[in-house]
Amino acid sequence: MPLSPALDPEGYLTDPADWSEEVAGHLAATEGITLTEEHWIAIRFMRAWLDDRQVAPDVRHVIKHLTETTGAGRNRLFELFPYGYVQQACKIAGMRRPRSWSTG
């Protein structure tokens, strides 16, 4: 798996199968984010959801998971990914950019 997988013009992976934790670290760095354990809790949950359902999880599922595992609430997700769930969390987790948001 190359560290520089194919990205679309907005910086999202063109193939989510190219994702690895090393790639996530690189994508996070391009967003100005240093990944912490809380970031990884969200990202690993998102990757598991994608593997199980072949679609990115809706933000409400990630917020619920963070709340259940860390006690953090809704605002914490947006502190971890200040430019938003789709713009940063989905990109770092290796999701394709959603055309429209209707997953769950």
TrEMBL record:
Example of a GO MF term: sulfur carrier activity
Signal peptide: none
GO CC annotations on file: cytoplasm
Keyword line: Cytoplasm
Top-level division of the source organism's lineage: Bacteria
Cellular localization per UniProt: Cytoplasm
A biological process from GO: tRNA wobble position uridine thiolation
Pfam family, one: DsrC
InterPro entries with a match to the protein in the record: DsrC-like_C (IPR042072), DsrC-like_dom_sf (IPR025526), DsrC-like_N (IPR043163), DsrC/TusE (IPR007453)
Gene3D superfamilies: 3.30.1420.10, DsrC-like protein, C-terminal domain (1.10.10.370)
Family note: Belongs to the DsrC/TusE family.
Protein name, UniProt field: Sulfite reductase subunit gamma
Source organism of this protein record: Paramagnetospirillum kuznetsovii
